[in-house]
Structure formats: C-alpha cells, structure tokens
Amino acid sequence: MARKPFIAGNWKMNMTVASGTKLIADLKPLVKEAKCDVCLCVPAILIPAMVKAAKGSKIKIGAENLHWAASGAYTGEISAEMLKDYGVKYVIIGHSERRQYFGENNDTVNMRTLTALKNELTPIVCIGETLTERTNGETENVLTRQLEFGLHGVEDVKQIVIAYEPVWAIGTGQTATDEQAQETIKFIRKKLSKMFGVKEANRVRILYGGSMNAGNCKGLMAQPDIDGGLIGGASLKLDFAKIVNYEK
Ligand code: PEP
Hints:
The protein is α/β, with parallel strands linked by helices.
C-alpha cells in the first residue's frame, strides 16, 4: 500500500491566538486541494483556538509534546487525555530541542511514544544526529539507538510517524542534500525492517526535517523513502502552503 505523504508544521514557541488564527485563515484556501495529510503542531495553550481556526479545513492540529502519565503531580506537563479533549490527532515526541534543552532521552521518548499509541494519538517521533556525530561517522549508531530504545515495546509500528531531523540542519538553513536525506532515511527503513519486518517497515511514514522550505521541498519529496516533511520556520508563514502543494 502506498504511503500517503504527510506535511507537518512545528510552530515551536511561536505565535499567539491572533497571529496563529490569521495564519490558519490565510492558509486554509491555499491548502484546500492538498493531496497529502497536513498538520500544524502548535504550543499547547494555542490548541483550542487553533482547532477552532482550522475547523472544516485540511489542516489538523497537533501538539508538540505529551506526558506519559494519565494525570498527577507533573507541573507544566500535558496529558494525552487533555489533547484528545480537543480532537488532537498528532503529537511530536522527542524533538531535538526537547532532547537538548529539557533532558529528553530515548527512555522518555519511549514512554511518551507508548502513551500516545495507547491513546490513539499518532506520535511523530523525532530522531537525528548532531554534526559532531555525523563527522565522527556515528550517524547510523546514533539512529539505531534512538530507534531501538525509543520504539521499544511498540506493537504496531505503522501507527507511528518518524521524523528524521539531522540536528545540524534544524533552523540553520543548512538542509541535508536530497541524497543525504534519502540515504539516511533508507537506512532508517532498513533498521525498522530488522526490528518489525519488511512489510511493516514499508508502511511507516518517514519525514525529513531540517530547514525544509518552499525551494527545496520538491527535490526532497521526490526521494523514494521520504514521505513528507516536518517543517519549523517555514510553517510560520504562507510558504507552508507551497510545501503542502509541493507537487504543483
Ligand atoms: C523543526 O523544528 O523540526 C525543524 C525542522 O525546524 P526548521 O524547519 O526551522 O529547520
């Protein structure tokens, strides 16, 4: 079965109710003929207003994180149930900024991923190597660890979306070349095949993320193993619609 392309935005800690509502209103007509799945992952506090803004359009609203516990003394965290209350379907897990600044590791990624799945939310699990790791030839080892620990205990891997985001490409304007992205994502799919079987691995959507924009999306999306993009900076502007419509 062909994998449906998926373009997801990550607003990070940007936008307000007013600016987000305006952007979504402007995007709506531009993405109405999208052939791919479209989602914007937004700060938790904006979810209710953005769900309202995106109603009746192709744009689904996602979250940027979730906690593994159902409820309890976890100040500042958001539960799966809270996300589901607003009809959220997608949730980013283990973004490199969470790993770098907030102590996320493969174990917390694993707990969050399993919790998302248990609650019928689609986790967008982020993996990727730093520049030092790539330079030292450690990319495949790093990705292997992130997949083996991060996806430990996952039963139905096709319910997961993987985002391959080389850390050196995020927010830097230094996009991986089409060939680099394809080669690494092909490796990720091969690794998933070993873990879950070829048939299952072939059904997993794997996105590329890292300075993807309206100019470079077409080349990346043409690669056989790349099923979409996780878009940071370019999801804060109308350029996001150009990426969604990458085929045009
Ligand atoms: C991201 O935040 O996941 C990302 C890929 O950011 P950017 O597109 O800005 O590099």
